[in-house]
């Protein structure tokens, strides 16, 4: 699935807003997801090569925002059940297994 430029912009904003609502630091997020800060930055800018990784970050942020009693900012492109998208590996997403490396 390819996102158009407007969807990319919206998704970057939605990730950032949910991150801010979570109250976490980038260091905490990277540690929880077992990734480097470089990889996390690639995820926030959507320059990560894996299609699964942004979904993992999305799900993580939604969970963390809800855990602090707030309502997550809805996603407009990363929507629906990731188990139904043929191009995603739902097993990796469910297990929060990020791709190897920083790209």
Name the descriptors:
globular, DUF2316 family protein, 5 helices, DUF2316, mainly alpha, 53% helix, 103 residues, single chain
Q: In short, what is this structure?
A:
By secondary structure, the chain is mostly helical. The protein has 5 helices and no strands.
Pick out the low-confidence regions: none
Mean pLDDT: 95
The chain-level structural class is mainly alpha
Order of helices and strands: HHHHH
What is the domain tally? 1
User: What count of helical segments does DSSP give?
Assistant: 5
Q: Helical content, roughly?
A: 40-55%
Strand content: under 5%
Protein name: DUF2316 family protein
Pfam family, one: DUF2316
Please characterize this protein's 3D structure.
- The chain has 103 residues and is mainly α.
- It has one domain.
- It contains five helices and no strands.
- The protein is globular.
- The two termini are 18 Å apart.
- The model has no long low-confidence stretch (mean pLDDT 95).
Present the secondary structure layout:
Blueprint: H1 5-22, H2 26-33, H3 37-44, H4 52-67, H5 90-94
């Amino acid at each position: 699935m390819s996102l158009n430029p407007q969807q990319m912009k919206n998704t970057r904003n939605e990730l950032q807003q949910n991150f801010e609502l979570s109250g976490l630091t980038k260091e905490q997020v990277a540690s929880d997801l077992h990734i480097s800060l470089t990889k996390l930055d690639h995820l926030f800018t959507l320059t990560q090569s894996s299609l699964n990784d942004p979904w993992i970050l999305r799900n993580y942020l939604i969970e963390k925002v809800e855990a602090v009693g707030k309502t997550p900012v809805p996603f407009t492109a990363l929507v629906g059940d990731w188990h139904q998208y043929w191009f995603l590996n739902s097993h990796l997403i469910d297990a929060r297994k990020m791709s190897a490396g920083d790209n």
